[in-house]
Amino acid sequence: MNEAKGCAATKSGASPAPFPEQRMNSGCYCVSLNRDALRQALEAQLGSPALVALVEDRCPFLFSAMPVFVSESQHQQMEAVVKALEFVIGMSSYRERILSSAAPIARHDPGGAGGVFFGYDFHLVGDAIGLIEINTNAGGAMLNAVMARAHRACTINADQLATAAESGPRFEAAIMDMFLAEWERCKRGRQLRSIAIVDTAPESQYLYPEFILFKQLFERHGVRAVIADPTSLRFHDGTLWHGNEPIDLVYNRLTDFMLDDVRHDELRQAYLDGAVVLTPHPQAHALYADKRNLGILSSRVELKSLGVPKSVQEILLAFVLPTELVIPGDADRLWQSRRKLFFKPASGYGGRAAYRGDKLTKGVWQDILGGQYVAQQVMAPGERVAGSRNAPEKLKFDLRMYAYANQVQWTAARVYQGQTTNFRTPGGGFAPVYHVAQTA
Questions:
Q1: For residues 407-426, b (16+ Cβ closer than 10 Å) or e, as one string?
Q2: Which helix (H) or strand (E) holds 243?
Q3: CB 437 within 8 A of CB 75
Q4: What is the pLDDT of residue 163?
Q5: Of 39, 84, 74, 36, which is closest to residue 57 (Cα–Cα)?
Q6: How far apart are CA 235 and CA 240, in angstroms?
Q7: Among 101, 201, 240, 256, which is most buried by a count of CB atoms within 10 Å?
């Protein structure tokens, strides 16, 4: 993330917003994405003009043309939330509480792997921020690293411009270091030789181009890599195989978080037998990403019962949106207050089967009561004005902090229209995040 000190486009036209970052998001129409530079960066990373054409054809709205602005204090607050959450999730009292009722595979010792690509997602309104969820296989990191090579904030000076240009390669290096660290944490006693990037029918996945970027990254660092459907994996002789290739580490992009699907039995058995390093793994999802956990992490009573220090409690209570498990006994109360709530499946992802309370029908409400859902206090996403001064268009955005081992690696925005992020909005997609100085 880089610092911006102002925007000429905000000095006239749109009525001023109360906070500098709001003025930038609502009044800056500068297009910072250089499409030619992006195409060159993608071709350099993907190694093929044909693959670049695939990205442009299949995923035309992966990258937003405009940056998103936040204040220095908001960025510091988000970092503080990430560190507070990591502190609590690392506590033995919390882990025992969560894992005692988790699926058996979540209680299996992952062998030291922590889990790659934790994604902490925030909404931002005015000068307020709120954590909406945590993800354990947050996508988009490699796409953001490539995008950084092509974005230029409209107002940064020469030094900041150089920093922005260098940020993508630095992030790529941090990504590779993270995978090597996962391997080292599992104490296998030898160098990492091979990685399988695993997802269901990977070539049909919307973010398939990112899988190719990962494959190229790993191979540039001397690690063999394959992109594989889990059904192509075989476990025998104490080794997980893809064809004739033994697999050391699986970068897990599956949304079957507990590996319950019978099609994942080979991978599941290799993981349980300690034959492969799996990252992220079921235990990470149970501890971080099950949305029922937010009911604990946003409750003073629960945090106190776990022995969480008061200073940490105050951070979480200020910034984690209040969340509770939907139970039939609370049906009347929740229905009456539904317009202030957002309902999400406990193990859901990507906004699937999630509902704004003010849009609920009685039929959907019955489905929610019959399923495992949480109700979260609504906080609107941020707004970014796109288009032009003569034809402005309001888009929404959220903020994602990628983190590993208690360190924030990168902050990105996702710009969109509709109920949830979708990467199908003209003018939307991943966008870089820039600081607005407090004195702006």
A1: ebbbbbbbbbbeebbbbebe
A2: none
A3: no
A4: 67
A5: 39
A6: 4
A7: 240
Residues 414 and 397: their CA atoms lie apart, in Å, by 5
**Own/partner pairs, 325-329, CB within 8 angstroms, 24+ separation:** 325/292, 325/295, 325/372, 325/373, 325/374, 325/375, 326/368, 326/369, 326/373, 326/374, 326/375, 328/369
Determine the 3-state secondary structure of 314 from DSSP. helix
| pLDDT single digits (tens) 375-404 | 999 999 999 988 778 888 889 999 999 999
- Among 206, 286, 287, which residue's Cα sits nearest to residue 253? 206
Task: Count CB-CB contacts under 10 A for residue 433.
Answer: 24
Residue 383, number of CB atoms within 10 A of its CB: 16
pTM of the model: 0.91
CATH class of 2-292+381-436: alpha beta
Secondary structure letter of residue 222 according to DSSP: T
> Residue 287 has what DSSP assignment?
I
Measured distance CA(346)–CA(325) in Å, rounded: 8
Beta strands 373-377 and 341-345 are: antiparallel
* Residue 279, phi then psi, degrees to nearest 5: -150, 130
Angle at 103 between CA 420 and CA 292, to 5 degrees: 40
Is the pLDDT score of 352 beyond 80?
no
Nearest to 413 by CA among 170, 140, 146, 17: 140
Mean pLDDT is highest, among 12-26, 190-204, 384-398, for 190-204
> What's the pLDDT score for residue 87?
98
Residue 13's pLDDT band, with cuts at 50, 70 and 90, is very low
In the chain, where the domains are located: 2-292+381-436, 293-377
* DSSP H or E run through 394: strand 392-404
* Cβ within 8 Å of residue 241, ≥6 positions away: 233, 234, 235, 247
Secondary structure letter of residue 288 according to DSSP: I
Report the alpha-carbon distance of residue 356 to residue 341 in Å, rounded: 7
**For range 55-68, the mean pLDDT:** 84
Token pair 């599941």 is found at 268
Q: Give the residue among 27, 26, 37, 53 at the shortest CA–CA distance from 151.
A: 37
Percentage of the chain lying above the pLDDT 90 cut: 65
What distances in angstroms separate CA 176 from CA 144, 220, 275, one per listed residue? Answer: 14, 10, 22
3-class SS at 402? strand
Please check the confidence at residue 15 and state whether its pLDDT lies above 80.
no
Residue-averaged pLDDT of the chain: 89
Q: What are 117-156's pLDDT values in tens digits?
A: 999 999 998 888 999 999 998 999 999 888 887 776 555 5
